Amino acid sequence: MVGLGGVLGVTVVALGMVLTPGPNMIYLVSRSITQGRRAGIISLGGVALGFMVYLLAANLGLSVVFLAVPELYVAVKLAGAAYLGYLAWSALRPGGISVFAPQDVPPDPPRRLFTMGLLTNLLNPKIAVMYLSLIPQFVDLREGHVLVQGLVLGAVQIVVSVGVNLGIVLAAGAIAAFLARRPSWLKAQRYVMGTVLGALAVSLAVDTSGPGGAT
Description:
The protein is mostly helical. About 75% of the residues lie in helices and about 0% in strands.
């Protein structure tokens, strides 16, 4: 079965990934601020389903497909890098808006909130890399039951990520109100997030490792 070292390792990786600004955080925060906590929680439900899709796909052979067709893996990775680059430019461009800045946008119905949360996660390159390259490194072949280990470790990641994102959803309004009273902090947050997203985009674009290699 899964050892304590594997569980702790995946927990650390999951925390590092979920606390790094990315598409999931941006979507959840923006919806929570503009439409309320209920909308943020519904969107988080879609994100959670996206995690489960990746968990099952990765453990049932998606990595084999990428190994057989490396061009597909490269295409997915470059598409993800382009998406992160777009998010970075949206934050850094002149007149850009912080993810914590209230915006006047039309409310989305629950089904659309859930679907957009799902698609945002499925198109999130960080999650693809984590399931295809990082989590498998904590599977101990000597323990056997590789499929069970992969599912358990993936479940650990889901619990950590959903828990942290739920905290972000519940706190988004308070954070937005805090930053609204401090315009310079709001601007700094936008630049920090944009820089991190840009660095992630460049790192993903220049990474030459294959689907089975470390990133």
